[in-house]
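Sequence in, structure out. Go.
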Amino acid sequence: MADLFSDAARERAGEVAPLAQRLRPRTLDEFVGQQHVLGEGSALRQSIAADRVRSSIFYGPPGSGKTTLARIVAASTGAAFEELSAVSATVKDVREVLARARERLGTTGNRTILFLDEIHRFNKAQQDALLPAVEEGLVTLIGATTENPYYEVNSALLSRSQVYQLESLAPEDLAVVVRRGLEEVGATAADDVVDLIVQRAGGDARTALNIVELAAETADGEITAPNVDDAARKRPIVYDKTSDAHYDFTSAFIKSMRGSDPDAAIYYLAAMLEGGEDARFIARRMIVLASEDIGNADPRALLVAVAAAQAVEHVGLPEARLNLAQAVVYLARAPKSNASYRAINAAMRDVQERGNFSPPAALRDGSYYGRKLGHGEGYIYPHDDPQGFDVDYLPDELKGTTYYTPSGNGEESTE
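Output:
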């Protein structure tokens, strides 16, 4: 009786399933996007077609096709296909899958592919339980994750897997998905409305189809922009302040200011703030940049960055975004020099590699007890004798060494 109910439920699930589930591609020809890993002649495409997929990690943002690609492998392979979600699976579940795989291989010679969704949710012990089976070829592992696998997956498991990075869908690919969705639900929309759905989906195919489905339900005839606005209440923001987006956006933010692009710098600032990034962290990175990439080409840059950090502490968000924006524009437009950065790095390298040489005797403490040892003798006080400005004050072992070379930009004169 239970089996009858289960079969009936499966049949009806297809009718009530969300549009994104009903339109999930079943073959590579139906799959949209990701041409950088699935283009004609690509290694992954050929291995799927030849049914010789190696253990792989599909890494990418939500809605980029990771699970869909794994299901396509499942549909095209002659191997048995097992699927687990790391959100709910335990070590016991993994061991049961491996036991079935071993029995299957021993009795029928049939291989097993294990698809593990959200593999980053597995802890080290759970991932270690998979390692021997992957290493000896008992299972072919396909993991899917939205997190950088080089941070979240054991290095031993990674070394036995191919990592494929999927990207958010390009607008032209997402438009194909949207039009398929419109056809499936029997709705129509003008080209500009399709473009709006693409824009609001933020590169996520699942989100795009969810918008299509809800907009079609609320539309009175053709889907319009107000229907899309009503259906797309989720912001198209993919940002996690503890993961990849944090590092990627921070890197782009810093590089945009370093490259004197205020528009890009302001955009990345807005994206980080909207994503919930800590404003104090942003301000600290700006203080570092002010000395690392601007330095004495504009000494006021450090003052501006420190003032912005103080404003964050005293004012707080959302108002402090104005202080941060003002400082970001200033830093981006300021003349650039990394002369101070290079100087301290070179000096630190000498100290680390050669030790800290003692200062010349003339520069050592010339107080009473120092003079007893001859310290301070021969020192030329520059304010009394201009020759004091021409002395090489470095330790004897480093005489003639140059650490600081002015850039000539802005106020950092080469004279």
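Check: The chain has a mean pLDDT of 84. DSSP finds 20 helices and five strands in the chain.
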